[in-house]
Amino acid sequence: MSQQDDTVTFPKAPTKPFPQFLNLPPELHILIANFLIFPDLIHLKLTCAYFNDLIPSLSHQDLLEAELTDFAFAHDIYACRYCLRLRPAAKFADRMLRRGRGRYGRDAERRFCVECGLMPRSGTARYGPGAQIVIQGVMFVICMVCRDFAVGVQDCKGIAICKSCWEERSTRERGFRDGVKCHLLHLRASSSLG
């Protein structure tokens, strides 16, 4: 009688290892990348310098499509037409995210972030001196006096200036008014004595 062995034998592992993903030819990497959707394509692009160089950047149209994904809704991100980036809502003026330039608006392709709006570029609509830009309910201006982008104030004439220029001007005007009052009081006092 033969004695049976109760141990189970497994087939031997293949002697050749499976090819690793990075060892595949670039043509296959490009084909695989073409099947990926946002944000998976971006995640692959960010894994290493090789994929960052191999995978082309998203076009403006691709970015507009990407902002309609669940990921974009969850992170409240929008496409900028000039820097070709997906940016959080806080990087855009409030009016860029509403109505025609909103997520589903007919002019969504004309939306740009505040950072790009502050950079002058000929032939395109950008922000200039005196512009009032509301970002998440806070008014910012490109000051008519110092030309800085800062939290803004409107004077009684509706001119947009930054808070520091406003305070400086108010101090100067207060000093002028106080000087005029002092001068008038001095004139009255000298005229009543004479």
TrEMBL record:
InterPro entries with a match to the protein in the record: F-box-like_dom_sf
Highest taxon, organism lineage: Eukaryota
The name this protein goes by in its record: F-box domain-containing protein
Source species: Aspergillus tamarii
